[in-house]
Amino acid sequence: MNPITKSHESRQRERLATLGASLFARGLTTGTSGNLSVRVSDGWLMTPTNVSLGALDPERLSKLDDNGRHVGGDRPTKESLLHLVLYRQRGDAGGVVHLHSTYAAAVSCMDGLDPAECVPPLTAYFAMRVGRLPLVPYHRPGDPALATAIHDLAARHHALLLANHGPIVSGTTLESAAAAIEELEETAKLFLLLRGIPTRPLSDQEVSQLDRGR
Ligand SMILES: O=C(CO)COP(=O)(O)O
Ligand SMILES: [Zn+2]
Q: Which residue positions does the secretion signal occupy (predicted)?
């Protein structure tokens, strides 16, 4: 590997570990739940399976090549296929974050949600960073069928809510994926706080006037 590629990859390793620690410290992930990945020049770095995002060792992150084969580090997250589908369906994706964050996970367990838009656009930042949030039918964690289930949706949405599980979000960078999933978590919290209270989500016209992705 040439030195420029190497130093780029080292930085990505640090960014992934730093983000994991920050998410863990703020209670957005607990135990060994959740996983992160970032694009590098010759593949992807992913969090290993069954590790705390709060204690990632940059040197032990899983490396996958451009074909999605595990070529270095510890065994990758059991959701690696899910991450790969998001990258393949969204050409500009540079990072993916999956969490079991409490409020989004709570919403993912609710009955009677609209599967096309399971959290309404309550605030401008939700509409800007997350957009329309579809609900993906329940599959067990790591089920390869989950990757098939999100295939078509992932072409149209960078944020998805997995039923009885949690959110997964891609972004052009790891940090933009994190900003979007944090906004999703906060809006899931508002959605639950506002249950039973007459609420006015943003209108289609108000949403259309927003600068998406900013
Ligand atoms: O969130 C998880 C499964 O959905 C965590 O699994 P991994 O430890 O394999 O990343
Ligand atoms: Zn999970």
A: none
For the beta carbon of residue 156, count every other beta carbon within 10 angstroms: 11
Catalytic residue among 9, 79, 183, 185: 79
Choose among 28, 20, 34, 15: nearest CA to 77: 34
pLDDT given for residue 153 in this prediction: 97
CB 160 within 8 A of CB 167: yes
125 included as an active-site residue: yes
The interface predicted TM-score of the complex, written ipTM, equals: 0.99
Measured in Å, residue 197 CA sits from the centre of ligand 1 at 35
Nearest CA to ligand 1 atom 4: 141
What is this structure's pTM?
Answer: 0.96
Calculate Rg over the CA atoms of the chain: 17
Catalytic: 79?
A: yes
Question: What pLDDT does 211 receive?
Answer: 83
